Amino acid sequence: MRQGLYDRESARVPFTIGIFVLAIVIFAIDAKTPLEVSVCVLYVFVVLLASVAYRWTGIVLVGLGCEILTLTAHLISPGDPWAHWSLLDRAISVVGIAMSTLLVVRNRVATDALRESEAYLAEAQQLSRTGSIGWRDPRAEQFWSRETYRIYQYEPDAAKPTFAMMIARTHPEDRKLVEQTIDTAFRNRAGFELEYRLLMPDGTTRFVQLVTRAEDQAGRVSFVGAVMDITAARRSADELQRVQSDFARVSRATTMGQLVASIAHEINQPLTGVVTNSHTVLHWLNDRTLNLDKARVTSERILRDGERASGVIRRIQGLLTKTPLQTGDIDINGLIGEVVELLQTELRSRDVAVQTELAPALPRFPGDSIQLQQVLLNLAINGADAMSDVTGSPKLLLIGSRLESDGDGLIFVRDHGTGLDQETIDKIFDPFFSTKAKGMGMGLAICRSIVEAHGGRLWASPAEPHGALFQFTLPGKADADA
Length: 482
Fold this sequence. Notes:
Residues 1-7 have low confidence and may be disordered. This protein has 14 helices and twelve strands. β1 and β2 form a beta hairpin. α11 (369-386) runs antiparallel to α13 (443-453). 56% of the residues lie in helices and 16% in strands. The strands form three sheets. It has a five-stranded antiparallel sheet, with helices on both faces. A five-stranded mixed sheet has the order 7-9-10-12-11. A two-stranded antiparallel ribbon has the order 6-8. The protein is an alpha+beta fold. It is rod-shaped.
């Protein structure tokens, strides 16, 4: 924003020359014509020309110059300068020039204020990476701010923005979603919020969020909104989630190492006793050292050490399946929403889309939200793994809820993978049975134990036309209390 006499350097010299020449020509004509001819009124055009190149201070100076030339020409023009009608005519011209100058200055001040406001707005949009956008027809011309041009990487004023230009920058996998969303918004005459990807000419991918509001103008709907470049925020969130995921893996590995060391320490002592006492029994049962009483005592020690080892195993089983539930009232739809949020980065890295089908107005169900969240996470990740080899069709994971006729709540996870045969379904919940090359076969077994501890049921079935469907139920409060 310039604060000098002239509005822009490129207009300074040519407009100054033009103003000077025009003023001199008008002065010369005015000085040679009789006083009855008001040529000086043409100075209004000089003032208007000054408004193009100068700021308000320059316009005022030009107006004053025109007034001086008008009065000077009055004194040297042919005729009596003090005649009544000559003075009246010249006074009207002076007032006209002054009023024109005042109006031009007022308009110029308002224009400068508007430009300054637009400049601040453009700078704020650039800092926030937010552009403005508007359109009246879903497929026709649009209205973009300069920041919107920058976000979509088009040259400002090179061409009028259109819906086609927007779609051309949209990632091919997201174009159908954008088109359907905008078409639906125009049909419903309602604003929308949409997050999608852009594929830039250099091959980079950026993330934007489009937020719009519908406006009804004389029966015709139009949309005004903001488009925000959220690439940095999205990448930061993904990086944070990746770090958290890595930290969780390290934490699990550390915990597992500590657990294994603890188990080894606890089991090692009774097993060592079993081995030692077994050798002792054999010694006392030898023909040369036969001693049945000592052999009996040693055998009892073997039994005791075996029971100690068995007790360790039982405690591990209790840790995995018999932990007392931290029961509370659970919002099933809220639980599903939390799991979907946790899975966003994981599923995006596998090119898996997630969709929810949530039953409205579900009651709350008693249960341990942490354990049930782990069950749902395990089922969802298994579904994503089942689609790892899928090509040529969408990788869609469907998670939903519904209320059963008996009042139980049901949660389901459906994938579009290769599916399950009957033999696999019969074994899939057995401990140590896994369909994965590196699977341990404990995830689904633990999931079923958690669901059954809640009084529910977990089962699997084939999905049509392909894929697998996992479902589990949670009893309502009445059943839980009974």
